[in-house]
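Proteins fold reproducibly. Look at a sample protein:
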Amino acid sequence: MIRYGLYSSSLVFRHFDGGDLSVVFDPRSGDTHLLDAVSFETCQVLVSGPATVDQIKRSMLVEFTAEDPAMICQAVDAAIERLRYSGLLGSVSN
């Protein structure tokens, strides 16, 4: 089973109250990325260490109990792809 992790432990996250968007600064590259709520929460799960997609989804289902579970699972899949494409997330070996 593939586990995903953040590429750097030095990422700097900023979440703004009342908004659905957050930013993350990557000091390795100097890039700043705009994150939607699910991407931000996915990163927050991974701050504590690598996790499988199923573990991330379970965490999100606990966090967003009022939302549609199928929608959350699809949103997590999309967030993982966006984070991988941005260079913030990658697969890690067991």
Summary: Residues 3-87 form one domain. The chain has three helices and six strands.
